[in-house]
Amino acid sequence: MYRRHNNGQISIKEFHLPFGGTLDPENRWVQLEGLMPWDELEQAYAPQFNATIGAPAKSVRMAFGALYIKQKLGLRNP
Fold it and tell me: For the chain, which residues score pLDDT lower than 70?
């Protein structure tokens, strides 16, 4: 089951560190967040799940983000 809704996740630009700092805008992952077409990815991802039964799926940002990082860093499953 996939629920499309704003889960309260803030954008990276809105994230502030506890000591008053912000994330470095030059960080590769911060830059990538702004380049990803998250809405388009969600439109392709959501229909893969039954709308009424089953455990809720992870958000597209978590699922696709993890796969992207795995590929980008050349990681593999143990």
Answer: 1, 3-10
C-alpha 63/C-alpha 61 separation (Å) is 6
DSSP single-letter state for residue 14:
G
* Per-domain residue ranges of the chain: 12-72
- DSSP 8-class letter at 70: H
* Encoded tokens for 6: 């704003």
Provide φ and ψ at 22, rounded to 5°.
-130, 170
The predicted model scores a pTM of 0.65
Tokens 């795995």 belong to which residue? Answer: 70
**Residue holding tokens 């912000």?**
22
- pLDDT digits over 33-51, tens only? 888 888 888 888 888 888 7
Cα(36)–Cα(61) distance, rounded to whole angstroms?
9
